[in-house]
Every structure is written in structure tokens, then in C-alpha cells.
Design brief:
The protein is of the alpha/beta class. It contains ten helices and nine strands. The protein is globular, with a radius of gyration of 19 Å.
Length: about 260
């Protein structure tokens, strides 16, 4: 007989609770910085889950044209709604001019800024931004030539004043089967070096399997900082076992993990 939904949730919660306690014993901060307030997820639910699992919460909304936050007024409303809550507060930035388009005073109220490379100009560097996970709007005829452009896109994102790069080494569906071919050691080192130089943490994502083992080991050797994230679509719990296991698998210590600087 299958366990009830309540039993499944309790088992999930106990599992999540047990592993972070092991990490806490090693003095490794376990924080999920990639909790979107969407699909029924609220800051109150994030706080409740934080209490149940021991995993600290970082909540965010997307900002950019066509996203939930487009204006400074909307940004202020979001910041006011989470002011004083026991969570870290961030934004996922989707436009490349976000740092000049919005009030510095408002941006300074954030604990962190997260970005990914999943929205890219297509079919060339001067083209409109395209959501790479939606494959109807573009083609990749020459994977190597596209990868060279994608490297430039990655480096542009990493040059922004962001805190975390989410889903490092992401590839869109048309070329994801070429991961080992396209993500050469040289390209990985280039991305990691840019992250280290620009003080950007590299996310170990709980759901996507990104980045892969080779990248994480290389990043650890090169002195990169790491963060954990789930990237939820709704308010259902997400298994963070991959993140917890990474602590032991890669020998992560407190100094390897990104923690936002205290606000002035």
C-alpha cells in the first residue's frame, strides 16, 4: 500500500532535515538561494519550510521586460513585502541592462542577485533575446560556432555585478547531447576563471544536474565559491539530496560557500 500524501511529506521533511544537520556539524552553510515566489510559493511558505528542514531560504522574483518586475515601483513593492522577514532576498535578472535601468538605492536593499545564461540574443549577437528552453523560435545549425557566441554571452553575464550564476554550463535542448564535446576543459576554465575574478558564486542545482562533476571539481581546484538552489516552479518540496551530497563528495567547507555580505 502506498503511503499517504501526509506520510510522504513527513518522510521527505525528515530526510531533508537529517542531511543538513550533518552539513551544519561541518559548519557548512546550507542555503537555497533559488526559491521563486511563484506558482503558489510565498515568503511565508518559504519561512515555514526553512523551519521544518533546517535549509535557510533565499527568495526572489524575476526582473526584466515581460517578467513580474519591470519597474522600480514594482521592485519597491516586492522589497517592502519581504522587509524584515527571516530570509535572504534576491532578484533573478533577465535583461542585461538591469544594473543601469533600476534605482541603485533599491538594488542596494537586496542580499544577492542571481542570473543565468538561458536567455540569449538569436540568431546573432545583435538579435533579440530568446528563451533558449523554448526551441520553436530558433535553430542551431553549427553547434561549434554557436558555442563560441554562447561563451561570449556567458562572459557578459559573469561581468555584471551579480552574486550567483545559476545552472552553470546549461545547454539548450538542440545541443544538450553534445555537452562533453562543447564544454571542453578550456571553456570550463574560462567560465570558472571569470566567476572567480568577478566574485560570482557557481550554483549547484538540486534539480537540473548542473553543473556536472567535471566542472565542479575543476571549479573547486580553481578556488570558486558555490551556492545551492532548487529553482522551483510551484510550492511543492524539492529534494535537495544532490546539494547535501556535494558537501562530502567535493569536500566543500564553509569558505567554499557563498554567503551574502551583511547589509550596511
Amino acid at each position: 500500500m502506498k503511503p499517504s500524501r501526509l506520510c510522504q511529506f513527513v518522510l521527505f521533511t525528515l530526510t531533508c532535515l537529517a542531511v543538513p544537520l550533518t552539513a551544519a556539524a561541518a559548519d557548512v552553510p546550507v542555503i537555497d538561494y533559488h526559491i521563486h515566489l511563484r506558482g503558489g510559493m510565498t515568503v511565508e511558505k518559504a519561512i515555514q519550510r526553512q523551519a521544518e528542514t533546517g535549509v535557510k531560504a533565499g527568495v526572489l522574483r524575476n526582473i526584466g521586460a515581460g517578467w513580474p518586475i519591470e519597474t522600480d515601483e514594482q521592485l519597491r513593492e516586492f522589497l517592502d513585502s519581504v522587509e524584515g522577514k527571516p530570509v535572504f532576498v534576491g532578484l533573478q535578472v533577465n535583461d542585461r541592462d538591469w544594473m543601469t535601468k533600476h534605482s541603485k538605492a533599491l538594488l542596494d536593499r537586496l542580499d544577492y542577485v542571481l542570473a543565468d545564461t538561458m536567455i540569449m540574443p538569436m540568431p546573432n549577437d545583435d538579435g533579440p533575446p530568446v528563451k533558449l528552453w523554448i526551441t520553436d523560435g530558433y535553430t542551431i545549425d553549427d553547434p561549434e560556432a554557436w558555442m563560441e557566441r554562447y561563451m561570449r554571452h556567458n562572459l557578459r553575464v559573469l561581468a555584471e555585478p551579480i552574486s550567483i550564476l545559476a545552472n552553470p554550463t546549461y545547454l539548450p535542448p538542440p545541443v544538450e547531447h553534445l555537452y562533453d564535446q562543447l564544454w571542453t576543459d578550456e571553456r570550463m576554465r574560462t567560465i570558472i576563471r571569470a566567476a572567480v575574478d568577478n566574485h560570482v558564486a557557481l550554483e549547484i542545482n538540486a534539480r537540473s544536474g548542473l553543473p556536472r562533476d567535471r566542472f565542479i571539481r575543476m571549479a573547486k581546484e580553481m578556488g570558486a565559491k558555490f551556492s545551492f538552489g532548487t529553482n522551483n516552479m510551484d510550492d511543492k518540496p524539492i529534494d535537495m539530496t544532490r546539494c547535501f551530497e556535494a558537501i562530502d563528495l567535493y569536500g566543500l567547507k564553509k569558505d567554499d560557500m557563498y554567503v551574502p555580505a551583511p547589509k550596511k
